[in-house]
Amino acid sequence: MLKKATALLVVSLSAASWISCGTAESHYLFTTLPSANQIAVFREDPNSGVLTTLLNSPFDTGLAPEVILLHPSGKYLYVANSGEDDISLFSIAQSTGIITEVSRTPLGADAQTPVLMAMDAAGGYLYVANATSGSLSVLSFASDGTLSAPTTTFLGVKPSGMALAPSGGFIFIGAAVPNGQTGSGQIEVWKLTAGVPTLVGLFPTNAANSTPGGLVVDSTGTYLYCVNGAGGNSISAFTIAPTTGVLTPFSDSPIGESGVSAPVSLLIDPSGKYLYVANQGSSSSASGNLAAYSIGSGGALTILTLSPFTTVKQPTSLAADPNGNYLMVGGQGGSLEVFLLDPGNGTLGEVATYSPGGFPSSIAILQ
C-alpha cells in the first residue's frame, strides 16, 4: 500500500488545533510555554505567514501549561496546566488577540498531570488525558466557555497520545508497553455516549517495544494513524469500524521509511490530502525533519519525493493555518517555525523561524 512517489514535485510553497472564524485581519497564533508557565501570542499575516509578537505577550497561566485548545466560538482558550492538574479558561479579545484568564477548573485527585486534550465541538465536551494517574477526565463546556465539574475514568494505561473521531463517538488513546514487558504498543478505543466513555477494546500497533505517540483521525472518521516512537520508527495505520470503533490494521502496517526517525506527532492538513510526521531523530542532532505523505484511496500513504523536510531541532508540536497555506512547527529547542504549504503537492518551504521564549509544546491558530 505504501509506494515511493516518483513524480517530480515542485517546491513552491499542524490532536494540531485550529478553528476558522473571524476575518482576514484577525489571525492569531497561541502557543504554550511549559518551562515559563506562559502562553505566547502572535498576530499572523494571512498573506505571508509572517508572525508578529503581541506587545503584551507572553501571558501568565498555571504551572507547566502543556496543551492548548480553542473554543468553537473562537472567543475562548482552554489550557491544561500539567503542573497543577487544572484547566485554565482564557477569553480572547477579538480585535487585538489579547487573552485574559477567566477561571481555573481543578480536575480532582484522580486526574494527575494533564498532558493531552481533545474537543467535541458539536457535543460540547472537552476530554483530558492525565499521564501520571492514567485517567481520562470529561468536562462539558457552555457557549460562554465555562466548564462543568469533571468526571474521571481510569484507563488502565498511561496515555501517550490521543485522538477524537470527528463524529465525537469514539476516542482513541495510545499507550506504551508496560514496564518490564515486551511486545507491541497499543491503542485503547472508547465509545462515547453523551460524553460517557465505555471501553471497546485494546488494539496492538504491531510495532515492537515502541510508544504510540501522536494519533490522528482523518476528516471522514475512517482511518486512524499513529506514530511509533521510542525505537519503533514507523507509522501504524488502521481502518475504523463506523459503528463499533474496532480497529483493523492496514495490510502493510506498521509503515517504515528512511525518513521516519523517532517520530513524535502527526498532522493531517486541512485539505485532508497530506500527512506530516514530526521526526526528532537523535537528541544530538542539530535539526529534525518532517516526513510528508499524500493520503490516497483507502487511506494509503505515499511518501512525497522531496520528503523529509528539514526543520528546527527536535520538532514536537504541529499546527496548520485554517486556510491550509501554512504549517507551524514547535521545536523542543525553543523555536517556532513557519512553512508555506503548497496545496497542490504538499511540499514545504520555510517562511521564518521565531523564538517564543521557551519550548512551544502546543499550538492553536485563530482565523
Largest sheet features: 6 strands, mixed
Instruction: Output the CATH topology.
Output: Methylamine Dehydrogenase, Chain H
Based on DSSP secondary structure assignment, what is the total number of beta strands?
32
CATH architecture: 7 Propeller
Domain count, please report it.
1
Full CATH superfamily name: YVTN repeat-like/Quinoprotein amine dehydrogenase
Give the CA-CA distance, first to last residue.
36 Å
Number of helices: 0
CATH domain class: Mainly Beta
Shape: globular
Based on helices, strands and strand pairing, what is the structural class? mainly beta
* Arithmetic mean of pLDDT: 89
Gyration radius, in Å: 19 Å
Query: Strand portion, in percent?
Result: over 45%
Low-confidence stretches: 1-24
- Residue share in helices? under 10%
Tell me about this structure.
By secondary structure, the chain is mainly β. The protein has one domain (14-366): Methylamine Dehydrogenase, Chain H (7 Propeller), CATH 2.130.10. The chain is 0% helix and 51% strand. The strands form seven sheets. Strands 1, 23, 24, 25, 26 and 27 form a six-stranded mixed β-sheet that branches. Strands 2, 3, 4, 5, 6 and 32 form a six-stranded mixed β-sheet that branches. It starts with a strand and ends with a strand. Mean pLDDT is 89; it is low at 1-24.
